[in-house]
Write a structure and sequence with these properties.
Blueprint lengths: L7 E4 H14 L5 E3 L11 E5 L8 H6 L8 E10 L3 H23 L4 H15 L10 H15 L9 E3 L1 H8 L5 E2 L6 E6 L2 E6 L2 H9 L18
Parallel strand pairs: 1-4
Antiparallel strand pairs: 2-3, 3-4, 4-5, 5-6, 7-8
Length: 228
């Protein structure tokens, strides 16, 4: 009751299916932001946005609740984690290393020789081909894609737990994971003028995340720059 917006998460396999069809099936004015097609969107999530520009056209306002501004919703990805904490921590260190190289290229803090050395190492380690050169957005994007491939490398049948690897599992450790069974069954609960699917085990999830007083209304902060 103390939150006022809706967040969406998808398991990796569902998210992959979504991205395969979303660009074709979303209404024409909608767009998807991710690190590939949106400048400076260096995040491992997709943001579905209701338009590309603000629009005060009367016909548009009539179909958009008199809301002319851009609004979006983030889709967070839950990946399957290694059952072994040791294996998961090792995988997360790999991801951090790839991102450190990518970010060093983006901000220019990594020298040319270091970039060449790191590119050769990563290409050999993961058997991939990275873009030519030592600078540029294309190389950083390719490295982010490589990092995401490592997030997705554990298959559903190989795992009993899931988590949002970046940033939470990397930052807080694999003990912040959830059991895969948490997302196997859903129920529909009311949210404003619709109903949305949530894990049937939502009480267990919320207790583990917020404690036994999660239904107490709290007005202590805002997480977005309202009112935009």
């Amino acid at each position: 009751p103390w939150d006022d917006d809706l967040d969406i998460c998808m398991l990796r396999d569902d998210y992959t299916k979504f991205r395969q069809v979303a660009d074709k099936e979303l209404p024409s004015q909608f767009t998807i932001h991710d690190y590939v097609n949106k400048k400076d969107h260096w995040l491992f999530l997709s943001r579905v946005v209701n338009n590309t520009t603000m629009c005060f056209d009367e016909a548009y306002l009539e179909t958009h609740n008199n809301f002319p501004w851009l609004a979006g919703i983030d889709i967070f990805v839950k990946d399957y984690l290694y059952d072994s904490d040791e294996d998961e921590i090792a995988r997360d260190k790999e991801i951090l290393n790839i991102l450190a190289v990518a970010d060093g290229i983006r901000d220019g803090s990594l020298g040319q020789q270091s970039v060449i050395t790191e590119k050769e190492r990563l290409q050999k380690k993961y058997n991939v081909s990275l873009p030519e050169g030592c600078k540029g957005r294309d190389l950083a994007v390719a490295l982010y894609a490589l990092a995401e491939q490592q997030m997705a490398r554990v298959k559903p049948e190989e795992s009993h737990r899931v988590g949002q690897i970046f940033p939470w599992i990397i930052k807080l450790g694999p003990n912040k994971s959830e059991t895969k069974e948490t997302y196997e069954n859903i129920v529909y609960l009311p949210f404003e003028d619709t109903k949305v699917p949530v894990p049937a085990a939502y009480n267990r999830s919320l207790l583990s995340r917020y404690g036994d007083n999660y239904c107490m209304i709290k007005k202590v902060w805002d997480g977005h720059d309202y009112p935009f």
